[in-house]
Design goal:
The structure is a single chain. The chain is built from 14 helices and twelve strands. The chain has 380 residues and is of the alpha+beta class. A five-stranded mixed beta sheet has the order 5-6-1-7-8. Strands 9-12-10-11 form a four-stranded antiparallel beta sheet, covered by helices on one side. Strand 5 and strand 6 form a beta hairpin. Helix 12 crosses helix 13. The longest helix has 22 residues. The structure holds a DNA duplex (18 and 18 nucleotides).
DNA sequence: TCTGGGGTCCTTTTCCTT
DNA sequence: TCTGAAGGAAAAGGACCC
């Protein structure tokens, strides 16, 4: 198989190119007022945008421009911490409707050129180009260029593409040349191009696994590959150990999956301020019911029911816990979800302030005779 | 002044049944 | 009736990803 991995770079204000910008937090309304006041988003002068140093409130950064990353600011960082590192950075709100529109255009463009596509979130996809006519030309580079050009013409967005024998390597390859790059990695390049990289670059090795590997004296993928498979299995267990060994050698036989059924649906919210279960009881009740209603809406809109109801809460000290319960019959109505979730709440210590509450439904089944295609259309 | 929201998958623990 | 083993399902937690 020849796999492509493509990700788009999303930034909707051309006048901010090259400046430190973070996206996250904030109110969309403020952003709209700004562009209205100046006659359209393209006309807003750079000085008029809000700065990180003036930001107040909870939240994390969804993404940051390369200029902002120079200051050590990055995804998932708290906005307050980011403000200390780069107070002059411009803060933009997350506009999910807009992101979804661009995401759709990005994926539509790709599917027209290479139909075997796996959706990996708003800005990423895998593509199997084994069967695409001309997909192998120049090692895949000419198709990659065509995809980039088509996406740019349709959306104005740039896109980085990695081409490799499998998904694991294609994803890593796409990072080599950001933004708007194309990288081709052949099987025989693994030792020269992949082995020098940090283990953390493997998709699936996060901060915890990386720390464990480092404690064992393993920094790079090459060092990981040098360890015996059985030794890794002894350290990390049969599944993870064997997977790590294969990944370090650039081996991955996962297919490009074009369709999958959802496993669970959930809604959760972090409060503006921490709420006390007794003191703020009524406020919490309203939020809790609202979450159940939103999950129920999601289920009904997408045509699913679920048997397992779960709650999640996070205390003010950031410890979190979950409880769930499986019902005899699948359900999708807000009242029944609320009732089951209410029972779960009784099984949890409510002796300190909460910062987050969530409701989840899993063990899902399709609830009607709708075809997958119809559900797909209605779900977005 | 810390640390979002929506997911998937895996491991471990617990509970129930045989 | 008690005890223990074994196995499966459900529950809980955690790592990871975008």
């Amino acid at each position: 198989m020849d796999a492509f991995f493509a990700s788009v770079e999303l930034l909707r204000y051309p006048q901010l190119k090259g400046l430190p910008v973070v996206i996250g937090g904030g109110r969309r309304r403020a952003d709209d007022e700004l562009s209205e006041r100046h006659g359209g988003s393209q006309q807003v002068p750079v000085d008029a945008f809000p700065r990180l140093k003036d930001y107040v409130g909870r939240g994390v950064i969804t993404t940051a421009t390369y200029a902002a990353r120079q200051f050590g600011v990055g995804s998932a960082m708290g906005l307050m911490k980011a403000a200390r590192l780069c107070p002059q950075a411009i803060v933009l709100p997350v506009d999910f409707d807009e992101i979804r529109r661009y995401s759709r255009a990005f994926k539509d463009t790709i599917v027209e050129l290479a139909p075997v596509m796996e959706d990996r979130g708003v800005d990423e996809v895998y593509i199997d180009v084994t069967e695409v006519p001309g997909g192998q030309r120049e090692g895949g580079r000419s198709l990659a260029r065509l995809i980039q050009r088509s996406i740019f013409e349709r959306t104005g967005l740039t896109c980085s593409i990695g081409v490799a024998p499998n998904k694991l390597i294609a994803k890593m390859a796409s990072e080599f040349n950001k933004p708007n790059g194309i990288s081709i990695v052949y099987e025989h390049d693994v030792q020269s191009l992949i082995w020098p990289l940090a283990c953390r670059k493997i998709n699936g090795i996060g901060p915890k696994s990386d720390a464990r590997l480092q404690a064992l004296g393993i920094q790079t993928i090459g060092e990981l590959a040098a360890r015996e498979r059985d030794w890794l299995i002894g350290q990390f267990g049969p599944a993870t150990g064997a997977w790590m060994h294969a990944a370090a050698w650039g081996l991955d036989d996962r297919p490009v999956v074009t369709h999958s059924e959802p496993v669970s649906m959930s809604r959760e919210t972090t409060f503006e301020r921490d709420l006390h279960p007794r003191h703020d009881r009524s406020e919490l009740g309203v939020i809790f019911t609202g979450l159940c209603e939103r999950v129920a809406e999601d289920l009904q809109r997408k045509g699913y029911q679920g048997r397992t109801i779960g709650i999640k809460l996070r205390y003010d000290d950031f410890r979190s816990l979950t409880r769930d319960h499986t019902l005899p019959q699948p359900i999708c109505d807000a009242g029944t979800i609320r009732q089951a979730a209410g029972q779960l709440l009784k099984r949890v210590p409510l002796d300190r302030r909460l910062r987050l509450l969530g409701v989840r439904v899993s063990s899902m089944v399709k609830s009607d005779g709708k075809s997958d295609i119809q559900s797909d259309i209605q779900s977005d």
